[in-house]
């Protein structure tokens, strides 16, 4: 649990971050990779610990070329889909200085919200 | 929605027990429930992502330095294991400035034969390292050709090129890569799959012995091992007609034959690994190879699923790798020999054989030990005609019930329910059922690494102890149906029965207690000042074993007297063989008691004289230290171990230094006498068929150990005499500063189980 502070801004900030705990975040970092995992911990330097993390990379030129070739060979029409490269890492800590973008996932469901 | 149901289930997850926030199980359950809830997304609604960078950054800045917002169940202890992204030491996906993500090497380009040869040899080297327990990410997966074949982008039939190569006319060099090297890689990968299957089907310890992690890759699932052999055949055919220098052709063919033999041996689970070992010619042609290190890279780790930091590639030399292969093959062949039909007829001989295997130098690798376990445990029987049940019954018969109708296999076939043999057999079977797992562990656990043998046997002691209770009940039942021989008690008071099953369990318990202590010496877990106490306990365990064997022998002798008048010679022959063997067991226990007694007295003298001392420990208490050290034995209910007080009162410190030295020498003489007897035993008498060489070697080592003890004692005596301490009572004498003692480390002892302190005079 986070320690509360007398400062109302601070209390609100802590509440905001607390609400994000265990939610899935997408972190985009300076070298182009993306990390998708559950938020477990953060601090005032914006260092972020994610659990059950997958690392995603933009496909390379070679990947795009291969996907295009296979698309053609398969006689498919329409746009070529190139998947991002993905691998499982587990528990990671992303230092705040390298984070360029933070995205959170939202869902609405037919039944109640979890 | 099914996922919602699951999420609800997970949310309701509780485990009975301590439900407080910090209670371990409740804690874990809540944590699991939480993560499960998050992972299972509710479907049927809409979802999206939202950029919260601004809000998040602003909020984070509001926190105090050092203030954390963290999940209540997330401990900082775990945080230590988190991989730090962008730190090159932790982040396997980090690409330094100026470097490329992927190695700049075209796996499809043709290569000259010399370089293909080098790659094949390098893969062989890396396979040897993998067998030693290093993960695939540091070994075989670092080959860029293998990496391409295993890439998630690749599809069956797993070519090196993603494009269509069939329309091209390939150069010889291209064919060497796409036909020969590819076939070799495929075969090696399928061999890995087979090795993993064998290892994972048996007992082993992940990370300690071997790493089975596949890093998110699959090992060519659509290609079978037999397909790999076909590919190798095609490669051989190609090479035979290819435009390649003769000497290179021969060298490449050798590698292909190696790969074929290796995978064939794995498929058939054959033991004919001598054929592989005979391929030592590889060593000669290796010099023809031309290095092409660019074909291997640890950059492959950037794309492997791993929760560990990046690891370096392993460097062992080609010669060392070949040496490993040779030893590996020899181990598999030996595993087969040691478990041959003849050896398996005697449980004790088989047991000795497994110990002998475990003590091969260097220790057999994980696959070889898994292979041995496969031979013994994969089928329903130990060997042809010897089911596990038969093995156990033979063990009981050999030890305690030779010639007795109770353990006669024929008795177990009687179907008439009123027959006492039928009734007794069913009772014995029920007991054997209870003892089965732990009994088979006596064989299986010796196939593990040395430290694990000690640790699992330590747990066995407690299990045997509780089995002894069962055995006593069973013996009482048997006695009521078929009363056995009754003899006067050794100390004259009252009568005593054999209690064969109790004796059998007790024997194994005492033997296991001795082994755990001996393995403790071998794995160096005792501090120098503890040697004295541990040797004393070893002596006590050995003495109890002696007494037990004597107890069994009395009844065996009495049983033989009854056979004298019978016409059937078989029971008497059986009893005679058992008698000879029990005499051997007796002598072995005698020896152990004598040698441990000598070492106890010697090390105790060294302590009394102030030469061997415990470290300064202000807060240590003797009883607490004792409890921790003897923890595994404290719970024994049947004939509990002597207490700390009993050990301390056995101390000999009121004797003179000279007297103690004399006692040590006479005890050593007793030990040597036992060895002389054992030397004259033949394999049938001692039940060491199959391990004759190890028997002889061990006796030699033990003889040397005895001599060493005598030598050290005379050293001590000489210096004591020089300083006029010989006739002083040990307790009152101090020889601090006059002598130095060093304790030989494991590996530099005459026999790994016996620690003989090295005594030297300290020169002024």
Automatic annotation (TrEMBL), chain A:
Q: Which SUPFAM superfamilies match?
A: Sm-like ribonucleoproteins (SSF50182)
Q: What is the superkingdom listed in this entry's lineage?
A: Eukaryota
Annotated ranges, domain Sm: 15-104
User: Pfam families attached here?
Assistant: LSM
One Gene Ontology term, aspect cellular component: NatC complex
In terms of InterPro entries, this protein maps to: LSM_dom_sf (IPR010920), LSMD1_Sm (IPR034110), Sm_dom_euk/arc (IPR001163), snRNP_SmB/NAA38-like (IPR050914)
Stated name of the protein:
Sm domain-containing protein
From TrEMBL, chain B:
**Domain NAA35-like N-terminal, residue spans:** 65-228
Q: What Pfam families does the annotation carry?
A: Mak10, TPR_NAA35
**Signal sequence annotation:** none
Keywords linked to the UniProt accession: Cytoplasm
Q: Which residues form a coiled coil?
A: none
Q: Which domain of life is it from?
A: Eukaryota
Q: Which GO terms describe its cellular component?
A: NatC complex
Q: Does the keyword Cytoplasm apply?
A: yes
* Start and end residues of each NAA35-like TPR repeats domain: 350-722
Q: Does the keyword Transcription regulation apply?
A: no
Record-linked InterPro entries: NAA35-like_N, Naa35_N, TPR_NAA35
| Predominant subcellular localization, coarse grouping | cytoplasm
Q: Which family does it belong to?
A: Belongs to the MAK10 family.
Name the UniProt record assigns to this protein: N-alpha-acetyltransferase, non-catalitic subunit
In its UniProt entry, the species of origin is given as: Friedmanniomyces endolithicus
């Amino acid at each position: 649990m986070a320690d509360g502070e007398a400062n109302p801004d601070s209390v609100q900030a802590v509440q905001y971050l607390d609400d994000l705990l265990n939610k899935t975040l997408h972190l985009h970092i300076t070298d182009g990779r993306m990390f998708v995992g559950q938020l477990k911990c953060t601090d005032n330097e914006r260092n972020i610990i994610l659990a059950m993390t997958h690392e995603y990379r933009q496909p390379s030129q070679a990947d795009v070329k291969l996907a295009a070739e296979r698309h053609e060979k398969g006689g498919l029409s329409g746009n070529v889909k190139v998947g991002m490269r993905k691998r499982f890492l587990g528990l990671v800590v992303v230092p705040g200085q390298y984070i360029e973008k933070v995205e959170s996932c939202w869902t609405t469901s037919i039944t109640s919200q979890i | 929605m099914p996922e919602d149901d699951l999420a609800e289930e997970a949310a309701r997850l509780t485990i009975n027990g301590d439900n407080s926030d910090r209670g371990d199980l409740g804690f874990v359950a809540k944590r699991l429930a939480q993560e499960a809830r998050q992972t299972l997304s509710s479907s049927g609604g809409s979802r999206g992502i939202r950029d919260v960078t601004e809000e998040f950054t602003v909020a984070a800045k509001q926190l105090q330095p050092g203030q954390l917002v963290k999940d209540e169940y997330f401990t900082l202890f775990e945080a230590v294991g988190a991989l730090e992204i962008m730190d090159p030491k932790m982040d396997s996906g980090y690409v330094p400035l100026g470097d490329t993500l992927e190695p700049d090497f075209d796996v499809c380009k043709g290569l000259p034969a010399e370089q293909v040869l080098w790659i094949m040899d390098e893969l062989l080297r890396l396979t040897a390292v993998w067998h030693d327990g290093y993960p695939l990410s540091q070994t075989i997966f670092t080959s860029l050709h293998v990496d391409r074949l295993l890439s998630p982008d690749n599809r069956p039939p797993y070519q090196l090129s993603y494009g269509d190569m069939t329309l091209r006319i390939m150069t010889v060099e291209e064919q060497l890569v796409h036909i020969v090297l590819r076939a070799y890689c495929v075969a090696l990968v399928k061999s890995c799959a087979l090795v993993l299957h064998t290892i994972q089907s048996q007992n082993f310890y992940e990370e300690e012995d071997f790493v089975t992690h596949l890093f998110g890759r699959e090992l060519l699932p659509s290609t079978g091992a037999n397909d790999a052999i076909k590919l190798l055949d095609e490669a051989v055919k190609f090479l035979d007609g290819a435009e390649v220098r003769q000497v290179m052709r021969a060298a490449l063919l050798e590698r292909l034959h190696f790969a074929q033999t290796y995978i064939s041996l794995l498929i058939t689970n054959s033991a004919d690994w001598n054929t592989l070992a005979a391929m030592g010619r590889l060593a000669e042609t290796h010099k023809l190879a031309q290095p092409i290190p660019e074909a291997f890279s640890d950059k492959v780790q950037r794309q492997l699923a791993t929760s560990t930091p990046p690891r370096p590639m392993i460097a062992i030399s080609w010669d060392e790798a070949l040496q490993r292969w040779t030893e590996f093959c020899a181990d598999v062949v030996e595993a087969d020999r040691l478990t041959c039909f003849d050896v398996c007829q005697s449980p004790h001989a088989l047991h000795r054989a497994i110990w002998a295997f475990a003590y091969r130098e260097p220790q057999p690798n994980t696959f070889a030990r898994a292979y041995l376990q496969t031979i013994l445990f994969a089928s329903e029987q130990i060997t042809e005609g010897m089911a596990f049940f038969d093995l156990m019954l033979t063990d009981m018969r050999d030890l305690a019930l030779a010639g007795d109708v109770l353990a006669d296999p024929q008795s177990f076939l009687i179907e008439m329910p009123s027959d006492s043999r039928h009734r007794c057999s069913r009772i014995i079977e029920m007991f054997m059922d209870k003892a089965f797992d732990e009994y088979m562990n006596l064989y299986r656990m010796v196939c593990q690494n040395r430290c694990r043998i000690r640790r699992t046997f330590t747990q066995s002691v407690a299990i045997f102890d509780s089995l002894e209770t069962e055995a006593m009940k069973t013996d009482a039942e048997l006695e009521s149906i078929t009363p056995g021989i009754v003899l006067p008690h050794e100390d004259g008071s009252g009568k005593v029965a054999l209690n064969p099953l109790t004796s059998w369990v007790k024997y194994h318990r005492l033997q296991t207690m001795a082994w755990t202590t001996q393995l403790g010496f071998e794995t160096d877990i005792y501090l120098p000042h503890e040697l004295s106490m541990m040797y004393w306990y070893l002596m006590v365990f050995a003495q109890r074993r002696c007494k037990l064997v004597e107890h069994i022998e009395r009844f065996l002798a009495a049983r033989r007297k009854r056979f004298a008048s019978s016409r059937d010679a078989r029971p008497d022959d059986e009893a005679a063989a058992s008698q000879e063997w029990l005499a051997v067991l007796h002598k072995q226990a005698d020896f152990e008691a004598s040698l441990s007694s000598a070492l106890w007295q010697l090390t105790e003298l060294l302590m009394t004289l102030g030469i061997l001392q415990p470290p300064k420990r202000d807060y240590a208490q003797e009883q607490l230290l004792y409890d921790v050290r003897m923890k595994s034995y404290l719970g024994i209910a049947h004939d509990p171990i002597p207490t700390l007080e009993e050990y301390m009162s056995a101390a000999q410190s009121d004797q003179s230094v000279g007297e103690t030295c004399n006692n040590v020498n006479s005890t050593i003489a007793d030990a040597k006498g036992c060895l002389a007897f054992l030397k004259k035993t033949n394999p049938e008498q001692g039940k060491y068929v199959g391990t004759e060489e190890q028997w002889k070697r061990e006796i030699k080592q033990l003889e040397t150990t005895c001599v060493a003890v005598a030598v050290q004692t005379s050293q001590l005596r000489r210096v004591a005499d020089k300083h006029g301490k010989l006739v002083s009572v040990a307790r009152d004498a101090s020889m601090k500063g006059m002598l130095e003692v060093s304790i030989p480390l494991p590996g530099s002892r005459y026999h790994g189980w016996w620690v003989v302190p090295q005594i030297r005079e300290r020169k002024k």
